[in-house]
Specification:
two-stranded antiparallel ribbon
């Protein structure tokens, strides 16, 4: 999701922090998100979102056509959350898994919060 967001956020509106970083841990504590969360966490307007809610809300800040994914906000969480988890379990099987991590450019590194 982070790579997708970086590619589709040309104006660099979004900032990122690995959950394992000091900044990530502080944010998890501050917004009362379980440290064992195995998903992306999105903080927007003082509230933390996880799983499908995070992905859908992130899309609101992306460029077109990715921004259209925000339309899924109308799907109730009791439907979107299980679907998101089901999809997440199978994504590597369907799309493959990269052997190495992305090496960020200086421009991309600036989008990550330090700490």
């Amino acid at each position: 999701m982070v790579n997708f967001a970086i590619r589709n956020d040309k104006k660099a509106k979004l900032k990122f922090a690995p959950l394992q970083s000091e900044t990530g841990k502080k944010l998890l504590t501050e917004f009362k998100v379980s440290p064992s969360a195995d998903t992306i966490v999105f903080i927007d307007k003082g509230k933390a979102y996880t799983y499908a809610n995070a992905g859908i809300r992130i899309s609101k800040y992306l460029d077109w056509p990715a921004k259209m994914l925000y339309g899924f906000i109308i799907i109730p969480p009791f439907i979107s959350q299980p679907f998101y988890k089901w999809f997440a379990k199978r994504r590597y099987k369907w799309f493959g898994e990269k052997e190495e991590c992305m090496v960020p450019t200086a421009e991309v590194r600036e989008r990550f919060l330090n700490g």
